Amino acid sequence: MQIKILLFTKWIAATICLIAVFSTCSLAQTISLKGKWRFKIDAKDEGVKAKWYSSVLPESINLPGSMAENLKGDDITLKTKWTGSIYDSSYYFHPRLEKYRKPGNLKIPFWLTPAKHYTGAAWYQKDVDIPANWQEKRVVLSLEYSHSETRVWVDDVEIGTQFTFVVAQNFELPANLKTGKHTITLLIDNRIKAINVGQDSHSLTDHTQGNWNGVVGKMFLQAGSPVYFEDIQVYPDLKKKSAKVKIELKANSTISSGGKITLSAKSFNTKNSIQVKSITVPYQIKNGTNILEIDFPMGDKIATWDEFDPALYRLTATLLANDGKKDQKEIQFGMREFKAVGRSFEINGRPVFLRGTVNNCEFPLTGYPSMDVAAWERIFKISKAHGLNHMRFHSWCPPEAAFIAADLTGFYLQPEGPSWANHGTSIGDGKPIDQFIYDETNRMTKNYGNYASFCMMAYGNEPRGRQVEYLTKFNNYWKAKDSRRLYTGASVGGSWPVIPNNEFMVRAGARGLDWGKKPESISTYAKQIEQFTVPFVAHEMGQYCAFPNFEEMKKYTGVYKARNFEMFQEDLADHNMADQAKDFLMSSGKLQALCYKNEIEKALRTPNYNGYQLLSLNDYPGQGTALVGVLDAFWDEKGYITAKEFKRFSNSTVPLLKVPKFVYTNNETLDAGVEVAHFGQASLTNAKISWSIKDVTGIVLAKGNFAKKTLPVTNCIQIGNIRFELNTIKKAAKLNLEVVIDGTEFANDWSFWVYPAELPKLKTNFYYTNKLDEQAKKVLDEGGTVFLNAAGKVVKGKEVVQTFLPVFWNTSWFKMRPPHTLGILCDPKNPAFANFPTESYSNMQWWEIVNKAQVMNLEDFPSGFKPIIQPIDTWFLNRRLALVLEARVGKGKLVVSSANLSPDLKDAPAAQQLYFSLQQYMSSDKFNPKYEVAFNTVKDIFESPSKLQFDTFTKDSPDELKPKPKSN
């Protein structure tokens, strides 16, 4: 039933798309081909030789759609030959995962699981009636998003073969085609063959959209004039207030034709419609083709396109031949100029900072991209609600609907050629892919080049091969051919060679948080980008993970199921933590959001930094399951941060604070510098900026205003300083400092922690030790209390590396590269924290406590045991971990900390305060541990390694873990 609903939704979308086709080709006649087709799988490649195009195929299938949607193909088994790299093969071999490998309970962790899987040849067939009035017309079969190589027969005549990932495949039918009934047969093959773009390319990999077989976009036959517009490209010129219109005409080679072309244009989404005066020019066609270049004045008043005011025009080109033949084409375009000026981007002469996300082709209901404008408008509007203005498409090009939607919403796009030429392929080595990249990017610019949102382009993602030579030529080719956008050879990590003629850089290297040191908000990425003389955009920024949201599983009502989530959920239950799943999500999510905030702010305060591309705003379901988004794979919020909250630090205008640390003692002074990054529509004149410091109850402790200042369109705008003496804070406290640009939506805030410089000396009645020695056992046996500082002594859990930062991308894809944890979980209401203000999650005050601290693996502790402070493990292993725990041992009571908590701490006020709070707790009548644990079970933490050890069973590794390639 769910599949049928999905197909019905697709039918509605296809109908809307066909309405668009009629509106843009008003003089053409169209026959829709959506609906039921005959079908047959050709797993043995016997159909061509057996002339299946001459037979009636026995099965049926609904198009547009994929084979998997129609439940065609092979069942998923352990032997399914996936399209995509697997760097962690433990699923196939590890004994603890055996139950997920059994038929009936097959759950794979690498990516979402489709209903069916098939790579190979498949045949599709449909009968059509060619109307009598189509005689002497040019008839074209159009298949949008056929995946991927398509051969076409009409009756017994083969029409041609096309192979593309980026545009509709159009086949011109024979000119002498008779009216009446005909049979159209398609042979679609989705295997990687001679042209290998790379098995992990997002244009075809099972990591993302899936390597599906079928046709999912518009499908129709269209009859039009034999004299027609083959191509129209519009090149805006803002200075001249005109547009150069380049037209390619075609006609049957036997026709020598002349006539006239009329151009008219009108804005269609502006408050007041702007009608451009039409012009008419003659044309002549000889030998079947002609190219015209027409200067089209746009009038004295032009509407320009950008993120703030995405004004668009519709150009109507009408051809009237001398013999009465007609053709008409409508083109959507915007008057805009996107260029690089020195180290900055400019849109229409104004600086622009790209606040972007990477789109990895995540479409969890279908496995292939949405083909309707409304779905893409939703994606861009959600992105804008989070303060973004830019989207990169990782090794794939979206369908036309995405460009239309981006134009309407005002979004700067970087589509790419459909290749990640690294895993199993390369560029510049004479392979077929070398020419294919040129062919594909030419198809992209021909079909989508007029869309104002198409501002940037790259070959694709992180290649190998003779990349410098190849991509340098690629850039030169495109810079000479089309000036409407900027070009970079490839989007790459920091170890890839620099392509010297890039017009902008999309690179890693200037990203990340150096939280091996104390967190601060002063450092920048200036040194990392000083070598570049063109605009710099951070490649795949962030990649901070949160724990899986198991409530999301019910959303998978389409072709794909979240068997990976099911597996993680069951494994969590097997480790006696099923009831903590939601808490793990919320606490890890809060840390994830904190990391994104600080990294984005660091980028915004860096001079000559020009943008970032998050990887990504929403989750990525492949490559081991990368839960790096503050949104899920459906672009929905997960509950721990709202779009409004995210937008405070990721917006066109963002107040920024410069402080050397976030944790203070009350004998210090909070000295903070305030600056603003402003990339709005215009300068903010006489901006009034105010600030306030509040405690957790909302009481204002201090406030002030800065002198009014005009904010130009740039970053690093110095506003002033805030100075606040902390000696009035007598007890441990969390404070919040907020900076607001009055009268606007622009505001930002930061939390600080203040602790007493001198803590009271407590008389304690417990035995403090740094080893579980005989004296500790004696105290416990006699009913006493022990505090064990086990820092550096842990064996069971020693393999788990904890830093303040959460897991990067995910531990499976990166073969358990540290860190392995996702922050901490605790209960703020626990009396152990009575004198240590905290939320349930990691915040800045926890850095000096948890960063690089060992964790304890409680694999042998009683079922249901929960520690006072619980590190959240990677969801691939779900180990029950502890940083601080309490238990009844023998007749006594024990607290164990693998974080360094002691009476002798220096320059660690948060750790001192936590130890003080624990001391008071242990001396109070509230200290009554719930669980009893055997002494030897506790002792085993310091003697025996964990029973569960990670083994990838795979020798290969992702690019980031391989030796750095040499420049060529």
Automatic annotation (TrEMBL):
The protein's enzyme class: hydrolase
InterPro entries: Bact_Beta-galactosidase, Beta-gal/glucu_dom_sf, Galactose-bd-like_sf, GH, Glyco_hydro_2_N, Ig-like_fold, Ig-like_GH2
Keyword tags: Glycosidase, Hydrolase
Pfam families membership: Glyco_hydro_2, Glyco_hydro_2_N
Residue ranges of domain Glycoside hydrolase family 2 immunoglobulin-like beta-sandwich in the record: 227-336
Catalyses which reaction(s): Hydrolysis of terminal non-reducing beta-D-galactose residues in beta-D-galactosides
SUPFAM superfamilies: (Trans)glycosidases, beta-Galactosidase/glucuronidase domain, Galactose-binding domain-like
Residues annotated as domain Glycosyl hydrolases family 2 sugar binding: 32-215
The UniProt record lists the keyword Hydrolase: yes
EC number(s) recorded for this UniProt protein: 3.2.1.23
Protein family: Belongs to the glycosyl hydrolase 2 family.
PANTHER family per record: BETA-GALACTOSIDASE (PTHR46323:SF2)
Name of the featured protein: beta-galactosidase
Classification lineage: Bacteria, Pseudomonadati, Bacteroidota, Sphingobacteriia, Sphingobacteriales
